[in-house]
Amino acid sequence: MQLKSLFFSLILLSIFSFSYDMLDLQMAVGERNQEKVLSILNSLVYEKLPLEFKCEVILAYTDLYFWGENIPKNDYQELAKKYVDELLKKDQTYWKVYYAAALVYGHYVQKNYLLALFYSSKVFNYAKKSVELGQDQYLAHLLYGILNLETPFGKLELAEKHLLRALELNPNHVYTYVELGKLYEKKKECRKAKEMYKVALKIPGMKIWSYINKEGKIEARQRLSEVEKRCTSE
Fold first, then answer.
1. Are 176 and 193 within one domain?
2. What tens digit of pLDDT does each residue of 38-71 get?
3. Which domain holds residue 41?
4. Cβ neighbours around 4 below 10 Å, total
5. 9 CB contacts (<8 Å, ≥6 apart)?
6. Dihedral pair phi/psi, residue 153, rounded to 5°
7. Scanning 76, 85, 139, 216, which has the fewest C-beta atoms within 10 Å of its C-beta?
8. Read out DSSP for 73-111?
9. How far apart are alpha carbons 110 and 118 in whole angstroms?
């Protein structure tokens, strides 16, 4: 009888002591699995998390603001902003704090272009600082490259420099090839653009970016078709 009680106690302990880790959250966000993301976030005690995990929580909340459905998205974005503003005051040497800040404020702009007047310089400065502190972090270079490529305030030469660095650091991120394809289209280098789109369609991509992998391949396929029609001589 005592052994039986001990057995059930161990089962209950294993159930209630189960906790999610940072990879679980990254995977759920990467799949855009809203229910699982919320379940993980609700299970965490933010104040007790290590710094990198806190940054991932902020990224999850701002992602919910960007693509979530039938949830209090503005509340989650305000929470992301609150957390990242706190980290900006306390942890000024970690690249992902600035990366998260650039995305939080960038999402405000993407949802309301009028806010570009107030937040664009913040977004660029945070992204630039993220690169300075994270020279070997592909996400920092990818974000700064995209900002320079796709916003009116960017510089094409900086976009190319940082997108190529992101590619060097991680050759298995689908959207890096898509963004490089767009860059070469802007530079009228059709052959290089086609090469980038073809690689984007070929590589499997990273598991933690499963939704973006699919999205990127759809865009690569569309743009490749357009480039091939325009640039028949190359």
1. yes
2. 999 999 999 999 999 999 999 999 999 999 999 9
3. 22-134
4. 8
5. none
6. -95, 0
7. 85
8. HHHHHHHHHHHHHHHHHH-TT-HHHHHHHHHHHHHHHHH
9. 13
